[in-house]
């Protein structure tokens, strides 16, 4: 791995035209691969977008770029599963966990008030824990966490050790949460899927690890959510830069 050139491979797919022309988001994905792995990465991402429960894309973009910066290795967050019986129970638990991570209660309330609006944002929303306001300034685009991957062999080993299903969706979400929570400005992340058939979501934080919540919304609901609760007194431009550009491999190294 050391010294080898790596490529960031990115995919986004939408229906009724490209995202920036109002198309509906269908799927997105990220890989980091050596040159020899680019073909497989492209074909995995293509497959992901073509077989998606949100619909049939009529626009897709897959691009790859050479990564010049050194790749950082990050441990996956420790994982815990919380069984909830309804979306209401799941969201109440999420609020409690976000507060426990260090976000003031009034900022949590304000973030939840904005969720319907934020679900139209393509990437993540950055929410300041002090002012209780959205501060990324990215409008409908939001912040897309990029340049990350979790090599499959390490993920499979981790899943077996933790007794977790080797679910690609869990792999992707835990990789994002681990990269995001590693950043010093990030206090917590709240996420659930925009896929109508996937109702598990999570709250993640350095303090709490990755807290899966089995029911965060109702089946059939196509609105998702990804909010990063950040300390707005820090340099937010450099935080966004790190989330988008710092290349990261998740590596458990056989630890849980
Ligand atoms: C997504 O698919 O966009 C997010 C999935 C979040 C939950 C993943 C899990 O822990 O199962
Ligand atoms: Mg999705």
Automatic annotation (TrEMBL):
Gene name of the record: bioW
GO terms assigned for molecular function: 6-carboxyhexanoate-CoA ligase activity; ATP binding; magnesium ion binding
SUBUNIT field: Homodimer.
A Pfam family of this chain: BioW
Gene Ontology BP annotations: biotin biosynthetic process
Residue ranges crossing the lipid bilayer per the database entry: none
Coiled coil is among the record's keywords: no
UniProtKB keywords: ATP-binding, Biotin biosynthesis, Ligase, Magnesium, Nucleotide-binding
Name recorded for this polypeptide: 6-carboxyhexanoate--CoA ligase
Family: Belongs to the BioW family.
E.C. designation(s): 6.2.1.14
InterPro entries referenced in this protein's UniProt entry, alphabetically: BioW
Essential cofactor(s): Mg(2+)
Catalytic activity: heptanedioate + ATP + CoA = 6-carboxyhexanoyl-CoA + AMP + diphosphate
């Amino acid at each position: 791995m050391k010294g080898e050139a790596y490529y960031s491979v990115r995919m986004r797919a939408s229906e009724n035209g490209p995202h920036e022309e109002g198309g509906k988001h269908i799927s997105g994905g990220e890989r980091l691969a050596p040159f020899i792995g680019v073909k497989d990465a492209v074909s995995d991402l293509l497959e992901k977008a073509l077989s998606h429960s949100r619909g049939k894309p009529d626009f897709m973009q897959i691009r790859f770029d050479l990564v010049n910066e050194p790749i950082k290795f990050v441990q996956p967050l420790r994982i815990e599963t919380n069984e909830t019986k309804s979306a209401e129970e799941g969201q109440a638990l999420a609020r409690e966990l976000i507060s426990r991570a260090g976000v003031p209660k009034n900022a949590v309330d304000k973030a939840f008030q904005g969720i319907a609006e934020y679900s139209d944002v393509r990437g993540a929303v950055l929410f300041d824990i002090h002012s209780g306001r959205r501060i990324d300034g990215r409008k409908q685009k939001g912040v897309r966490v990029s340049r990350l991957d979790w090599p499959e062999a390490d993920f499979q080993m981790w899943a077996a050790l933790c007794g977790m299903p080797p679910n690609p969706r869990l792999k992707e979400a835990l990789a994002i949460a681990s990269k995001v929570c590693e950043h010093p400005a990030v206090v917590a992340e709240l996420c659930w899927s925009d896929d109508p058939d996937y109702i598990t979501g999570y709250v993640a934080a350095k303090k709490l690890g990755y807290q899966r919540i089995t029911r965060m919304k109702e089946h059939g609901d196509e609105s998702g959510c990804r909010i990063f609760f950040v300390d707005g007194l820090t340099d937010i431009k450099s935080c966004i830069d790190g989330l988008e550009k710092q290349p990261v491999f998740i590596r458990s190294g056989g630890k849980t």
